[in-house]
Structure formats: structure tokens, C-alpha cells
Design brief:
The complex is a heterodimer of chains A (266) and B (250).
Chain A: H1 6-42, H2 48-51, H3 54-66, H4 69-101, H5 103-118, H6 125-132, H7 136-160, H8 164-172, H9 177-188, H10 190-214, H11 220-229, H12 233-265
Chain B: E1 4-17, E2 20-33, E3 37-41, H1 48-55, E4 63-68, E5 75-78, H2 90-94, H3 96-100, H4 106-118, H5 134-146, E6 152-156, H6 164-180, E7 184-188, H7 192-198, E8 201-205, E9 210-217, H8 226-229, H9 235-246
Parallel strand pairs in B: 2-9, 3-7, 3-8, 5-6, 6-7
Antiparallel strand pairs in B: 1-2, 1-4, 8-9
Helix pairs in contact in B: 7-9
The chains are: A mainly alpha (266), B alpha/beta (250).
The complex binds adenosine-5'-diphosphate and magnesium ion.
Chain lengths: 266, 250
């Protein structure tokens, strides 16, 4: 059992206090900002037609909720994001493993991956719409394209950079390639893979919204597009706001996963 | 009766790289007797690690042969860097070799537990490597190598990452551990004192590409444990002789 000294208790107390101060400040800043916005709108220091206001946004929310549309739009965006995130993550991992397993294939693929990775995928948008059609699938495909190459390049490089000594050790114990992967490369890179999830989820959101802006009848990107076309700034800002909450929630979930895995491992 | 369990005959190794060929080992012949502690010393970069990695089947020799008396010989290789896996507990690290060989029997597991307990690691069995000191980590690495019941231990500068005090103390421990388990050892070191105090035989290599320069059979009067061996009267004679062989220029 550990027995904490008085000094250590003080240290912990100071740390806790610090944490509370930080969280309170963060919340205060948000409240202050919203209040300022509302006040400025109320006294017409700013034009609510262009910059909306918190109360208008709440009103927009409730009317969206009332006609039940909001959840359909959120659902569509979520669905597209989760599917493209899932495929990008799994496929990215499988391809990275393949490249690690067969260095020759990795060398052959290298220039192609580099070009595909550096190409701004937005440019492919119209092409994808022509090929796949203006559907949910083309949006998923676009989001997939945006995240998969980064995913492959990152994970593959992490795999290759696994501590050489681990591998020598395993080989000296008679390990086969399979053992080397499962006993050293994979466990050594768990945190890298999780970090990659964080990148993938934000890439998936970027891809999905981009796709929805280009072509769609549903989803938050569609709401934003529609709102801007009919000059309904309230709708645009509400949608952006929801999007922010969604992407933050996903990011938070991944961080949670990270914590669980770290706890299990150390 | 002497029993030779490993014979090296005209072993040769060249490394091939884009930039050219590196001749590491020119010609090494050697006989290794069962149960003996043999040290290999030589100038840095002369191919000592290369020699061990050939024997451990990690590198392929360019020429010559090495033959083990027993075809099913078990070799364990311990490197300077302990390479304990930070995501495995001390026990699981030690069981790695058994796991890879599918030999994770209750008996083997108990043997590992017994080693851990005997060598002062009982409290750390379920801990992770980051909670250990350098000397303890090296001890765990040795237990990991012993776990597979090797016939021959290949040790590549096993103590050189440690500070001077820990080094001498650990050498003492490791020596006792290895002698008690009755293993044959081939150890690379750059510490002449360590070599003389631990070994039955010392092989001095020339600089790269290396050949065998000299072989010393170490006979110390009143030979016991490494630390005490340093006080034997022949110690400094061997030390000086090997120092001269290595021909160190500063
Ligand atoms: N994998 C390798 N590829 C090419 N050259 C190597 C490799 N490993 C070692 N060498 C070279 O072979 C020589 C002997 O290396 P090494 O056996 O590590 O020496 P020592 O352990 O005696 O210090 C050195 O010149 C080194 O640069
Ligand atoms: Mg070396």
C-alpha cells in the first residue's frame, strides 16, 4: 500500500484545484461569448440577418425538432460518417499490414500512394458523382478517399518503425513473421493506431460534409447548403453547431477508448 | 571427459550493401566445450556481434561452417539492449520464448516463476518493465533467455548499458545463475576485467576483418566467484596480456 505524505496530499489538492479553475474558465468563456452575442443582437449592434443570435438558433432548433427533420439529417450525416470511418479504418489497417508483410509490394505501391495522398480529393468530387451517382454512396466514397491514404501511410510507417530490437529478439527466439506481427508490431503500435482513429474521424467528417455540400438531399451538409441558398443564416449556424457537437463527441469517444486500453496495458 | 558441443571452422562473413562490401569476419575457428564460460574480446567493430548473430541464426555466414554436436540444440541470445516489451508484465516477458515455441506447460511456467523468485524479482512478477531498474531489467532478460532451457547462451555485452557498480554486482549474480543452471556460455564483452573474472577461456580477435589472435585458458589460483577472482594473483597478468593483445591506441 502507498502512504501519501502531507506534501503529496498538498500536491494532489493543488492539482485538483487547478483542474477546477480551468474547467470553470472554459465554461465562463462560453457563457460570456453567448451572452455578448445575444446582447449585441438584441441592441442591434450586429445584423441578426447576417450573424443570427443564440435565441434565434434555439428557435430554429425547436422548429427543426418539431417537424422531426433534424434527426433525419443528423442520422444521415452520422450514418455516412460512421460507415466511411469504419471502412477507412479497417481497410487502412488491412492494407498497412499487407504492405508491412510484403516489403516489395510496399515499394511498388509507394509512388502511387504518395500521389494519391497529396492529390486534393475535393477535385475528384464531380468525377465521383458522375461515376457513383448522386447518392449516399458517393458521399461515403468521397469521405473514404479523403481518409484512407493518410491512414495507410501513417500506420504503415509506424509499423515499419517498430523498434528493431524487439524484432531481433523475437527472431532469436525463433519467431515467424506472423509472431513478429502479433507479438511486437501490433502491440507496439496500439497507441499509434488509436491516434490514427482520431485523424480518421475528422477526415471522415470533412469528407462527408464536403460530399453533402456537393450533392445531397439530406444531412447536415445539405442543411448548411440549403440554408445559405435561401439566406437562412439561423439554419446554417445551427447546423454547424450540431456538427461541432457531433465531431467533438466522436473525438471524445476515441479518447475514452484510448484511456481504457492504456489502463488495461499498464 | 571433455565434450565439444559447438565447432566453428573457418567462419567468414561479409556484409553486402549498396555502398559496397564490408568484410566483418575473415576466418574464425573455435571449439566450445560443454559447461564452459567463454568470452570473446576484440576491438570494437571487429565482428563480435556478427559472430553471435550467425550462431543465433539471424545472419547467414559467407563461408566456413559451424556445427552443433546436437542437431536439436537450443540457443538463447541475449543482447545488450534488454528489449523487454513494455506492454507485457515481467512474467509474460519471461514466457515469451516458451509462448513462441508452444511450450507453455505448467512445468515450464513454474520453472520461470522459480527463477524470478530465486533472483529477487518475486515482487515484480505482475509489474511492468518500466518499474524496474536497469540491473533488474537485465536480470529479467536473462531469465527470459533461460526460460527456454537453452544448451548454449549467447550474451552480447550483457552488462555494458549499466553503471560500473551495478555491472560488477550483476555479473556476479548472472555468473552464479548460469553456473547453477549448468549452461555453456559464449559472451562478448569489451571489459577485460569482466572477461578474466568470469571466463574459463578468452578468445581475443584481431581488428576487422577478424581472425582469432589468441586463445587464453584462464587458470586462477583459488578460483571462486567473479568478484573474488579479481583478487587472484594471475588476474592482472591475464589482464595485461590481453590489454597488449588488443593494442589499444589512444
Ligand atoms: N547489418 C549490417 N550490415 C552491414 N554492415 C554491418 C552490419 N552489421 C555490422 N556491420 C559491420 O560489420 C562490422 C562488424 O560489426 P559488429 O559485429 O557489430 O562489431 P562488434 O560487435 O565487434 O563491435 C562493422 O564494421 C559493422 O559496421
Ligand atoms: Mg557489438
Amino acid at each position: 500500500m502507498y502512504t501519501y505524505s502531507q506534501e503529496h496530499k498538498k500536491y494532489l489538492k493543488r492539482k485538483r484545484k487547478d483542474k477546477w479553475i480551468i474547467i470553470s474558465c472554459q465554461i465562463l468563456i462560453l457563457i460570456f461569448f453567448l451572452l455578448l452575442w445575444e446582447v449585441a443582437a438584441h441592441y442591434q449592434w450586429i445584423n441578426t440577418f447576417l450573424s443570427s443570435s443564440p435565441s434565434l438558433i434555439v428557435k430554429t432548433f425547436s422548429s427543426l425538432l418539431a417537424n422531426n427533420d433534424l434527426f433525419t439529417h443528423i442520422g444521415v450525416t452520422l450514418y455516412e460518417t460512421v460507415v466511411s470511418f469504419g471502412i477507412a479504418t479497417i481497410l487502412g489497417l488491412i492494407i498497412s499490414i499487407l504492405l508491412w508483410w510484403c516489403p516489395r509490394i510496399a515499394k511498388i505501391a509507394d509512388p502511387y500512394l504518395t500521389v494519391l495522398n497529396s492529390l486534393p480529393k475535393v477535385a475528384l468530387g464531380p468525377l465521383i458523382i458522375i461515376w457513383v451517382g448522386a447518392s449516399t454512396n458517393s458521399i461515403i466514397f468521397m469521405a473514404l478517399l479523403i481518409s484512407i491514404f493518410v491512414s495507410i501511410m501513417n500506420i504503415y510507417h509506424d509499423f515499419v518503425e517498430t523498434d528493431r530490437h524487439y524484432i531481433i529478439l523475437l527472431k532469436s527466439l525463433g519467431a515467424k513473421k506472423r509472431d513478429i506481427f502479433f507479438k511486437a508490431v501490433l502491440p507496439a503500435n496500439i497507441s499509434n493506431i488509436i491516434n490514427n482513429l482520431k485523424i480518421n474521424i475528422s477526415m471522415a467528417f470533412i469528407g462527408v460534409i464536403m460530399g453533402e455540400l456537393l450533392v445531397s438531399k439530406k444531412g447536415l451538409g445539405y442543411l448548411i447548403m440549403y440554408g445559405s441558398q435561401v439566406f437562412n443564416i439561423n439554419l446554417v449556424i445551427s447546423s454547424v453547431f450540431i456538427l461541432g457537437i457531433l465531431s467533438f463527441s466522436f473525438y471524445y469517444l476515441i479518447c475514452l477508448l484510448e484511456k481504457i486500453i492504456q489502463k488495461k496495458n499498464c | 571427459m571433455k565434450k565439444i558441443i559447438l565447432t566453428l571452422s573457418h567462419l567468414k562473413k561479409n556484409y553486402q550493401e549498396d555502398s559496397g562490401e564490408t568484410k566483418a569476419i575473415e576466418d574464425i575457428s573455435l571449439e566450445v566445450e560443454e559447461g564452459k564460460f567463454i568470452s570473446i574480446v576484440g576491438p570494437s567493430g571487429c565482428g563480435k556481434s556478427t559472430l553471435l548473430s550467425i550462431l543465433a541464426n539471424l545472419e547467414v555466414a559467407s563461408g566456413g561452417t559451424y556445427t552443433f554436436e546436437k542437431p536439436s540444440v537450443r540457443i538463447a541470445y541475449m543482447l545488450q539492449k534488454d528489449s523487454l516489451f513494455p506492454w507485457r508484465t515481467i512474467l509474460d516477458n519471461c514466457l515469451l520464448g516458451l509462448e513462441l515455441r508452444n511450450e507453455l506447460t505448467e512445468e515450464n511456467r513454474n520453472y520461470v516463476l522459480h527463477l524470478l523468485k530465486t533472483y529477487g524479482l518475486a515482487d515484480f512478477i505482475d509489474k511492468y518493465p518500466n518499474s524496474l531498474s536497469g540491473g533488474m531489467r537485465q536480470r529479467v532478460a536473462l531469465i527470459r533467455t533461460l526460460a527456454i532451457h537453452p544448451d548454449i547462451l549467447l550474451l552480447d555485452e550483457p552488462f555494458s548499458a549499466l553503471d560500473a557498480m551495478t555491472r560488477v554486482a550483476l555479473a556476479e549474480d548472472v555468473y552464479n545463475m548460469i553456473k547453477k543452471e549448468g549452461k555453456t556460455v559464449l559472451m562478448v564483452t569489451h571489459d577485460i576485467g569482466e572477461a578474466v573474472s568470469l571466463s574459463d577461456k578468452i578468445v581475443v580477435l584481431t581488428k576487422r576483418p577478424s581472425t582469432v589472435k589468441k586463445i587464453y585458458d584462464i587458470h586462477l589460483t583459488g578460483k571462486s566467484t567473479p568478484i573474488k577472482n579479481r583478487k587472484c594473483k594471475e588476474f592482472s597478468e591475464y589482464y595485461d596480456a590481453i590489454w597488449r593483445d588488443l593494442d589499444v591506441h589512444i
